[in-house]
């Protein structure tokens, strides 16, 4: 049993944001059909790393394509031809969801825009994912993740503070604005399906912009500025609003510590052998600690260098203070909690490695029944299943 039985999705998106949203729907049980250009397909088929065989030759799909395209079938259709357009309109007439990330208005010339397809299928939920949205002065402009990290303000608050070694803005370590937009798209599609099926009986158009989504995802950091007028700053591995809430050096490796309230700070200081610090007026509350970080943090750092990270973690966990190591992915994969939760898993019956969907339903758990498809692998199969074509 799946969470989205009998939901058909046409995925005309490429790269990350749209394919990520469509993969989410596939994990939940929707029949997701990825529509690709014959001969070339999705751009990320040529981005990322590949596995190597025993002779060292690259084999299989790229890591980027694998990350975004499990639980899908691929068909190859040339929408520049009348035949391809007619096929896609016929498929859209049978679909519940249509995702696309062409430039604003780019599908209208093919008769595949929302107005055209909703006339064929009024129940269709049509989601357009673009860099800047369907309107406004930037609507026709191209863009990729780093552009939206930059323009949204994210890079301005990521990196080491001014006046410290390595100071300067830094790109987040993965395509954050793409992934955030993909999450928003999946949520919006599910809401639109619910509205269709319980309220209106009709689908609707979803206009989702990566720039809008990344600004919204700043949440409390952007709100700090809105309500106070104080510009957020780069804080390295530290918090903008809480302290101590950062990485510290220990006797062997860095340790991230997050203190959420004054009681936890008192416990933290007791474990560090600094029992008098919470009574110091400079450090008694978070507001005071933020004002006196320059005096407080060196004292904490000096104490933390006395023991190894694992020893501190055990001692802090015992009194309810959150801490954790800064892992690389090898350490992540070996972490006992990650192993217990099965975060790194495989496609059923295929053995292809995947990263599990983190959502745990009690009745309709995600299943991983299809590896990322080859280009056009399922064209005949889908045309038969959806349109009744072929033998």
Automatic annotation (TrEMBL):
One Pfam family here: CoA_transf_3
Keyword Kinase: no
Keywords: Transferase
GO molecular function, one term: CoA-transferase activity
InterPro entries associated with the record: CoA-transferase_III_domain, CoA-Trfase_fam_III, CoA-Trfase_III_dom3_sf, CoA-Trfase_III_dom_1_sf
The protein, known as: CoA transferase
UniProt lineage: Bacteria, Pseudomonadati, Pseudomonadota, Alphaproteobacteria, Acetobacterales
């Amino acid at each position: 049993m799946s969470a989205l039985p009998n939901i058909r999705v046409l995925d005309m998106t490429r790269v990350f944001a749209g394919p990520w949203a469509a993969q989410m729907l596939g994990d939940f049980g929707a029949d997701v059909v990825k529509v690709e250009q014959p001969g070339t397909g999705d751009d990320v088929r040529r981005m990322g790393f590949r596995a190597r065989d025993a002779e060292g030759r690259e084999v299989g799909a790229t890591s980027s394509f694998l990350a975004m395209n499990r639980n899908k079938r691929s068909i190859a259709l040339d929408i520049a031809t009348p035949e391809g357009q007619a096929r896609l309109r016929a498929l859209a007439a049978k679909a519940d969801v249509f995702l696309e990330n062409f430039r604003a208005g780019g599908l209208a010339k093919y008769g595949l825009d929302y107005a055209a397809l909703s006339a064929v299928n009024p129940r269709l939920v049509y989601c357009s994912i673009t860099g800047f949205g369907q309107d406004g002065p930037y609507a026709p402009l191209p863009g990729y993740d780093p552009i939206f990290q930059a323009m949204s303000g994210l890079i301005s608050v990521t990196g080491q503070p001014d006046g410290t070694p390595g100071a300067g803005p830094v790109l987040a370590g993965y395509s954050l604005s793409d992934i955030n937009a993909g999450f928003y798209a999946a949520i919006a599609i599910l809401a639109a399906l619910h509205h269709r099926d319980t309220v209106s009986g009709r689908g609707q158009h979803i206009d989702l912009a990566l720039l809008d989504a990344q600004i919204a995802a700043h949440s409390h950091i952007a709100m700090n500025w809105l309500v106070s007028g104080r510009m957020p700053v780069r804080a390295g591995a530290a918090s903008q609003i809480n302290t101590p809430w950062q990485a510290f050096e220990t006797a062997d490796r860095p340790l991230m510590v997050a203190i959420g309230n004054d009681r936890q700070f008192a416990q933290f200081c007791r474990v560090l052998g600094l029992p008098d610090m919470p009574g110091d007026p400079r450090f008694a509350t978070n507001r005071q600690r933020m004002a006196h970080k320059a005096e407080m943090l060196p004292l904490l750092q000096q104490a933390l260098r006395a023991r190894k990270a694992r020893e501190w973690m055990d001692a802090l966990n015992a009194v309810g203070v959150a801490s954790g190591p800064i892992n690389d992915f090898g350490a992540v994969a070996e972490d006992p909690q990650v192993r217990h939760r099965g975060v790194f898993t495989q496609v059923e019956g295929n053995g292809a490695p995947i990263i599990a969907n983190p959502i745990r339903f009690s009745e309709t758990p995600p299943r991983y029944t299809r590896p990322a498809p080859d280009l056009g692998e399922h064209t005949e199969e889908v045309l038969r299943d959806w349109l009744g074509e072929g033998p």
